[in-house]
Each structure stands twice: as structure tokens, then as C-alpha cells.
Design brief:
Elements (H helix, E strand, L loop, with lengths): L1 H13 L24 H40 L3 H18 L21 H14 L36 E6 L3 H17 L3 E3 L2 E2 L11 H4 L2 H7 L5 E3 L4 H4 L11 E2 L7 H15 L1 E4 L12 H14 L4 H16 L9 E4 L4 H7 L6 H15 L13 H6 L7 H10 L8 E4 L6 H4 L1 H6 L3 E2 L1 H4 L2 H4 L6 H13 L3 E4 L4 H13 L6 E2 L3 H8 L6 H18 L35
């Protein structure tokens, strides 16, 4: 009311009584720019009106869009199955869109192989060879081993027993299958089990295998007389079962009860399951026998294993005689390094390359040859349904056999110059004329049993794979450096034998093949950088060579004293005697 009275008074002061009162004066600040109304004011008025109309229209469209979205969502919720078709609709839309684009507009996808997945060692060798040849002053043989055995003074703990053996619980006959060193495992385990069960062991029979194709018998490989004599105070060993035993089985071995024992069975299994049957039958057969005893065994078993492997098993006189000749000639050819030489166990035979499923640089021809070799050696194993082979992954995981070229690159990088004498232990190298050429360029003093011995000297061994492997084993044993490239029984036995002979140090280079795959696949690495990595790898092998045995490791690889010296401190300190 007060405000109305004020406005009423102002109105009556300025005009006739009864006329409407004028609005209040504009703000001085807002009105400063609008002193004279004209065309500019009219234009601004029309713009504001248009903006207001546009805002109203947008608000209307927004409200309509929201209503439509709510209606669509409500319909979808009522029909939830529609969600199942949403991905199909999306894919169909994308296909229609891609189909509408010209091919020259579609981006090209460039894929790069993972580091270490491709064999590029030949390119690396070609690029680094000038720098490698210029760097030929080091002599790694003079400084290769610096570590000493970590367990103190090395004490090979194989002591002789003088007590007489109790009455035998029966006879055990085993069939040793596989190659030279797999058969060696069977022999050692058979003696250990026979001693543990207080049984008489019949000289193991060597099972003929279609892969090794070697009909050799025990006496062809090992000195049988020395074997029996060395074990006489520990285990009874005979050539055959006595007639009074064989009469019970009609003089037919197939009638003898045969145990099918699982791989890596414990000594407890032999005591609880095999021994009662042995006592009952007085004669049992175990076939096959490779890897049928766990590495984790009581000291009495471990001692017998070591006694057999390092003392009782001596190669037969023909093998030992030629081996000594080869070692002597090898030392003569390494006179510049005081008779020291490197032994390399190279696994690059055709069957090894085929089994690995790795891809090298042979192209389609290599692929066809490997497919044929795999089918002949392992019929259907690699072509069965669902079998997926990824060569790149295999190489990255360090599972591919090293080529002769890669072995040469590795050794030169580790500091061995081209005057180093090398003994190469291997079978028939795959495509040897091509693959061996780079290794011979890097190490021209390389020798094999075929180059050290005459054809006449090798004739008695030529067609017997185990006898040829025995020659390699002997020469490698007395090398200054042993290089293993692919695992297996041969290097594991040899590493243990060298530990046994050389004060606890295996004197073995065991390269990190995963790391090698990455180094050899690096297109930018220089010679100095490669050599630095490889020298570190050599130092690592030196440190690993003096490690002590870990749980569940093979006693044949780690013949450490603490695993054998507790013979009289356990509950299994004596053979089992049931009578």
C-alpha cells in the first residue's frame, strides 16, 4: 500500500489526474549505453527475441528426445531379449560401414614379431664378423674358471664296505631301454634297488630300440668283469639266473612275473610292493626300467647309485683304448693352450631339429623335410587333432637346438679366440655342409672323432650309436671346458662326472638360451655389447658349476658328499633282510 501511494503521488505530480503511473527510472549503470533509442536498439531486440524462440525450440526438442528415450528404454526393459541382438546389430553396422569404404583407404596393419621369436643369427653373424675378427686377442681358456667348490674341501664320499652280504631275497632282471646314458641310469638304479632289497642282480639286458638301432650288449659297452668285482661287497651280480630257478618258469623269461612300475617310484614302493613279490617268487622281472626310481632316496640308495656310476661302470677295453688315443691327439692339437681344449655337445641332428618343431632359415624345403622326419619318427604325434605348434614361442622359451653358427657366436663372445681347439661331440649334423661352415670359420681347429681317428680305427664302432656316444663321453670328460647346448642325459651325467673328478666343479658352460634368443634376434646390438652379455653368461656358468645339490636333484649330476656320508645315520642304513 505504501508503494502504491508513492507511485500514485509521483504520477499525479507529473500528469493529469486519473492517468497510469509511469514505470520507475532505469538503473544508471544499465542505461548508460542506451541513451538514444534507434535502429541498433531495434536490432538488438529482434536478436533477443530470436534467441528466446530458439531456446524454446531447443527445449522442446530436448523434451521430445527425452520422452522418446524413455519410451525406447521402457520397451527394451519389457522385451529384455532385444539386448541379445544388440551386438549383432553393432557388428552388422560396422560391416556395412567398412564395406562402403574404398580399399585404398583401409589402414594397413604392420605386425612385428616378438623379440627372440625369429631365427636371425646368420644376419647377425654377417654384420658382426668384421668386428669379431678384429677382436681376437683374448684367451678365455687361461681364466675361464675362477669359482671354487662352496662346500669346503671336496670329498667324494664313496667308501668301501668290508662286511659280508646276508642271504639273498631273490633275483632281479631288468631291461634297460633308451640310448647310452638312459641305459646308464637304468643300470645305476637297478644296482641301487637290488642292494636296497638285498637281491641278486642279473646283468641288465639292453633293449633294442627302433630310434637308436644299436644291438650292443652290456659287455660291448662296459667292462663286465670290473663291474661285478667292484660291487662284490655291496651287491651280488651274476650273468644269468641259475638253472634251478629257471626250471620253475620253464626256462622262459616271459613266464617270470613282470612288474610295470610307474616312473619315479619311491624306495618305499619297492620295499612295500616289490619286495614281498620278490620273496614269494624268488625271481622277478622289471621292464622297462628307465627312470623307475625317484631321485629323492635314502642315503643307502644314493651311495649305491654313485658307486655304480663313478666307480663300477668303466667302458669296455676297445672303447677305452680308442678314447685314450683320441684324448691324446686332441691335446696335441691344442698345444698352444697347454693341451687344454673345449668340448661341445651339439644337438643339431635331423631328428632333434624335427622334434623341436623350431623354424630356421631353410624355407619350404626345410619344412617339408621336417614334416617327413616327424612323421617317420613320431607317427601322428605332431599332427593329431587339436595340436598347435608355435615355433616362435618355442624359440623364445629357449627350447630350440642351437645351430653350429650360434655356438660359434656364443663362444667367440665368451672370449675364446680362433686359436682355441674344440672337440665336437655329436651325431650326424643336419645339412652339415651348410650349417657347419660358419663354425669352422670361427674355429678352424675344430675336431671330431671322425677327424681324429682313421676309418679303420672307427670301423668297430661305426654302426653302433651307443659305442660312438661312449667315445664322445670319454673325450668330453677330460676337456678343460664342456659346453652343453640342449640338455638331456648326456650332459647331466657328464656334469656330475666332471664334478666328481675336478674337486666339485663341473667346469661346464650351460648357456641361458632364452637370453641368447633375444640377443641373437637384436638387429641393433653391436659386437662389444654382445660380448659383454656373453661374458656375464660365462661367469654365471662358473658360479653355477660349484653349487651343491638341491632337493630332488639327480645324484648323477650333483654327487656331493653330504648326500652320501650319512650311511650309518638313518633308519635305512642297511639292506633289507627277510630271513
Amino acid at each position: 500500500m505504501q508503494g502504491q501511494q508513492v507511485y500514485s503521488r509521483l504520477g499525479s505530480f507529473g500528469g493529469a489526474a486519473g492517468t497510469p503511473s509511469p514505470p520507475p527510472p532505469p538503473s544508471p549503470v544499465r542505461g548508460a549505453g542506451r541513451r538514444t533509442p534507434g535502429k541498433a536498439g531495434a536490432a538488438r531486440g529482434s536478436q533477443e527475441a530470436a534467441a528466446a524462440a530458439a531456446s524454446a525450440g531447443a527445449a522442446g526438442w530436448g523434451a521430445a528426445a527425452r520422452r522418446a528415450a524413455r519410451a525406447l528404454l521402457a520397451a527394451l526393459l519389457r522385451r529384455q531379449a532385444v539386448f541379445l541382438f544388440a551386438p549383432l546389430l553393432y557388428v552388422a553396422a560396422m560391416l556395412l560401414y567398412m564395406g562402403s569404404l574404398p580399399l585404398d583407404v583401409v589402414p594397413r596393419i604392420i605386425t612385428r614379431s616378438a623379440p627372440g621369436s625369429v631365427y636371425r643369427s646368420p644376419q647377425l653373424y654377417a654384420r658382426l664378423r668384421p668386428d669379431m675378427d678384429a677382436d681376437n686377442s683374448t684367451d678365455a681358456l687361461a681364466t675361464v674358471w675362477r669359482q671354487t667348490y662352496k662346500g669346503g674341501v671336496w670329498r667324494p664320499c664313496i667308501h668301501n664296505l668290508t662286511n659280508s652280504l646276508p642271504e639273498s631275497n631273490g633275483y632281479i632282471y631288468v631291461e634297460a631301454n633308451g640310448g647310452l646314458n638312459q641305459q646308464r641310469t637304468s643300470i645305476c638304479n637297478a644296482v641301487a634297488i637290488a642292494g636296497f632289497l638285498n637281491a641278486t642282480l642279473i646283468i641288465p639286458n639292453f633293449h633294442f630300440h627302433s630310434i637308436w638301432k644299436d644291438p650292443s650288449k652290456f659287455r660291448d659297452i662296459y667292462d663286465e668283469e670290473h663291474f661285478v668285482k667292484r660291487l662284490q661287497n655291496d651287491v651280488r651280480v651274476v650273468n644269468k639266473a641259475p638253472d634251478f630257478i629257471m626250471e620253475r618258469f620253464g626256462h622262459n623269461l616271459s613266464n617270470v612275473f613282470n612288474f610295470k612300475i610307474k616312473a619315479w617310484s619311491s624306495s618305499t614302493y619297492y620295499k612295500d610292493v616289490v619286495l614281498p613279490k620278490l620273496v614269494e617268487e624268488r625271481f622277478i622281472r622289471i621292464s622297462p626300467f628307465a627312470n623307475r626310481l625317484s631321485f629323492d632316496a635314502p642315503p643307502v640308495v644314493q651311495r649305491l647309485r654313485c658307486l655304480v656310476n663313478f666307480e663300477a661302470l668303466k667302458f669296455s677295453n676297445p672303447i677305452a683304448t680308442l678314447s685314450e688315443t683320441l684324448i691324446s691327439r686332441m691335446r696335441e692339437r691344442s698345444a698352444e693352450s697347454n693341451g687344454k681344449y673345449i668340448a661341445v655337445h651339439l644337438r643339431f641332428e635331423e631328428d632333434m631339429v624335427a622334434f623341436s618343431c623350431c623354424v630356421y632359415d631353410g624355407g619350404d624345403e626345410e619344412k617339408k623335410e621336417m614334416d617327413v622326419a616327424r612323421e617317420i619318427g613320431w607317427r601322428g604325434k605332431f599332427t593329431r587333432r587339436g595340436k598347435v605348434i608355435r615355433p616362435g614361442i618355442i624359440r623364445m622359451n629357449g627350447k630350440c637346438p642351437l645351430t653350429p653358427l650360434e655356438v660359434g657366436l656364443m663362444l667367440r663372445g665368451m672370449g675364446f679366440n680362433n686359436k682355441t681347439a674344440i672337440y665336437l661331440a655329436s651325431g650326424k649334423i643336419y645339412k652339415s655342409e651348410k650349417t657347419m661352415a660358419p663354425l669352422l670359420e670361427m674355429f678352424p681347429l675344430l675336431q671330431t672323432k671322425e677327424t681324429l681317428a682313421s676309418d679303420e680305427e672307427l670301423a668297430p664302432f661305426k654302426n653302433f650309436s651307443s659305442r660312438m656316444a661312449a667315445l664322445d663321453y670319454s673325450v668330453c670328460t677330460y676337456s678343460e671346458v664342456f659346453v652343453t647346448t640342449q640338455g638331456g642325459n648326456f650332459p647331466h651325467f657328464l656334469m656330475g662326472h666332471r664334478r666328481y673328478l675336478y674337486g666339485g666343479h663341473s667346469k661346464t658352460i650351460k648357456p641361458d638360451k632364452r637370453r641368447l634368443a633375444i640377443l641373437f634376434d637384436n638387429p641393433r646390438i653391436g659386437w662389444k655389447s654382445l660380448k659383454r652379455h656373453l661374458l656375464n653368461m660365462r661367469a654365471h656358468s662358473d658360479a653355477k658349476g660349484v653349487e651343491m645339490k638341491r632337493p630332488n636333484e639327480s645324484i648323477y649330476t650333483f654327487p656331493c658328499p653330504d648326500c652320501m656320508c650319512r650311511l650309518n645315520k638313518t633308519t635305512h642304513s642297511k639292506p633289507i633282510h627277510t630271513r
